[in-house]
Amino acid sequence: MYGRKVKLRFLFVVLILLSLVFSVFLLLKSLDENVVYFKSPSDVKLLEELDNKKIRIGGMVKKDSIKISNQDVNFVITDFKNEINVTYSGVIPNLFSEQKGVVAEGFLKDRSFFEASKILAKHDENYMPPEVKKALEDK
Amino acid sequence: MFKIFEPNKIFIITSRAPKYVLILFIMVISIGLVEALFLSPEDYKQGHSVRIMYVHVPAAWISLGIFSSITLLSVSGYIFKNKNFFLIAKSFAPSGLLFNIIALVTGSIWGKPTWGSWWAWDARITSMLILAIFYLMYLVAWRMYENKDQVLRVTTIITIFGIVNVPIIKYSVDWWNTLHQPASINLLSKSSIHTSMLFPLFIMTAAFTLFSLLIFLMKYNTELIKIKNKGLDRL
Predict the structure, then answer these.
(1) So what's the ipTM on this one?
(2) Chain A contact for B229, CB < 8 A?
(3) B2-15, pLDDT tens digit by residue?
(4) What is the per-residue pLDDT across A106-115, written as a single tens digit (0 to 9) for each?
(5) Residue B28 belongs to a domain
(6) B213 in any annotated domain
(7) Among A120, A108, A103, CA closest to A36
(8) The CATH number of the domain covering residues in A41-122
(9) Quick check: A8 contacting B, CB < 8 Å?
């Protein structure tokens, strides 16, 4: 139906696209560690050595773990397998609360203790009016 | 095969249609804005800042959609040697870039009160910034080259490189840990946005689509006038 040249051009585009997809795939595969925005507490457990670099840790704020004293905020980040204690002093984002996502940026003191210099609240993909949320909780 | 794309016939449509599209756009965006800013409920967690979603999400969708269309048009134009496809692609690009920038800026405004940060170098946001750079490259390439054949080849190559980034944007939130939340609306499963909030979202998407169509018609009309002035009656 189409001429030989049309078919050849089509093949050419497909080949360019395929080679690009493969190279980008390999590139991202090798960058994997750096593409992630934060590590989970389980990733931290698996770290071979702790260096003094700034890292980000993310997960859920454990229920009943937020303790506010003087100027410090202490809480526990959990991924439901492992936990990490975080201490922080500074401004807390509005959406920061228990059983919600959080990303803390700072330095690891040891495998279960983290000193944060910045806290970001991570929110989930659920959106609903307050009444609906209440109805769901009452169920 | 592409008889329908004869400039003279299409020119009659592109020179008259913008008026009606503009009226329709004003109507739809008025409904959309009233719904999004006043009638829709606030979020249980985010309060009123959820209203930024009604601009942010449709803008991101449209910018991805337009880039995909541009790629499809350029590649088909290259394979079938149809210059008109390139002109259609070129005329779509400015609104794509505009909505890409709107998505980035509103995302930033939304990020500050919710996450606590204007910007984060996470996979979703960075890949969206890369898309904006591809849009810029595409538009700059059209202005850069005098030689017609060169323009067509260079812009096609740019779209082929750029399209690889589009699935990365879509799946970045699933493949890596990101600060950006995962997708709420899925073709196959139930959406995690309450129905009362979906309505303004879709109206705003329709409004932005109409706006892109409007800009497209005006840009495309200009391209056709340029061809007419050169004294060519076909592409």
Answers:
(1) 0.86
(2) no
(3) 555 566 778 888 88
(4) 998 888 889 9
(5) yes
(6) yes
(7) A103
(8) 2.40.50.140
(9) no
